[in-house]
Amino acid sequence: MTPTREEMRKLALPALAALALVGAGAALVWSAGQALARAHGQLGAAQAERKQNAERLARIAEEEREVSEKLDVYKQLKRLNIIGEERRLEWADAITRIRTQRELLDLSYRVDRQKLLKSVPGKPGSVDFFASTMSVQLALLHEEDLLRFLADLRDSGNAYYSVKSCTIARTGQAATGTTITPRLRATCEIDLITVIDRGAKR
Description:
This protein is of the alpha+beta class. Helices cover 51% and strands 25% of the residues. The model has no long low-confidence stretch (mean pLDDT 81).
């Protein structure tokens, strides 16, 4: 059945309204899709920013931990008098004290002139490592005397003591029943290392 002209005229307005509603619905769907896409984008950006902030905080915490550890090491070196000018008088006093306490019968030493080992650039100034080589000769009743001497030397502070070499040889002297005769003789070379921080406040 073919609709009449009058019926077509009556259906035109509802048809236009339906088309408008369909268009509005499509626009709403598109707008919602755009809003959802923007929301996803903002969420992604916020998550990325949060991740960056978390990584930044983790780096700051790690840097603070490293600074704290280095500061602890610096304080310990300062307490042991390793940082600063060399202390030759203190070295001599320490050896005299060790010789007396350990009852070492024969001990002689010589400390060479200080030399620069390494200079490390830093801010605000460089850090210089110096070494004075000490040659030591001492008579031993047994090998443990040498180990005790080196341990006492390290414990005395005033430098970082780095043993370069030690040799032990028999003296060839026979033991007697009346006197204590050292039957070993040690010769050591020890670097007495000090550190000067050029950037430290005086």
